[in-house]
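Example (one chain per record):
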Amino acid sequence: MSRRLHIPFASAVLILACTLAAVLTGQSAPSEAAAKEGLLGNETTPSILGADSSSFMESGCSQISNISEALGGLSPKLPMAECLAPIEDENFEEGIVREGCLLPVYRRYIVKQDGEFRLIHTKAEFRSLYAPVQTPQEALSFAVALTDSFPRYDTSPPEDYFSVVASIEPSHAEEKEGAFSVHLFNRPICGCGSHPYYAVDYLVSKEGEVTELSRQMVYDSSFVICFD
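Predicted structure:
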């Protein structure tokens, strides 16, 4: 018998973010109970912002947090933070990646360049700052920054999941025919279901364009969870 559990999206984001951090650092993933009680997540202002974070809150950021370590391949190497901006109008398109379920938000980035803070609203602005893409490491960072996918290097099934394919490749990036091939993972979380993990292949051009080439389900679960 499957178990059905309803979890608000905000808690789901915390669970997923901390689980990904655990994957990257080798630490244990946090429990759902801890996230639901508000014990997890980045409650401190990223060190690059300090007291200046209030100005970004006033410009639309409802939450500011540290970026994923997977963005460390970007060049130039600038102090950087992540901004989540609520989507109040369905026609509003000033954002890099759409996240959320019933209460959607857009992911943006804050960078510090030449002593000044700058809010990156769109993919075009991001490419203008960080392109061209010249190495596989940069390509992987671009794919993570401009999509809702993430790297995973441990190919064993996550807790409460099982493999549905014979073999699974860890995340990697390589140069291929004048561009870069990047292998990441994705887990759609909105609605009710088992929320399987997918392996996703992207093509990243040297101009910074990120295109999804294919995706394949690799892990599934017997549990049914509902994320609002």
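Caption: Helices lie at 9-25, 32-36, 53-58, 123-130, 136-145.
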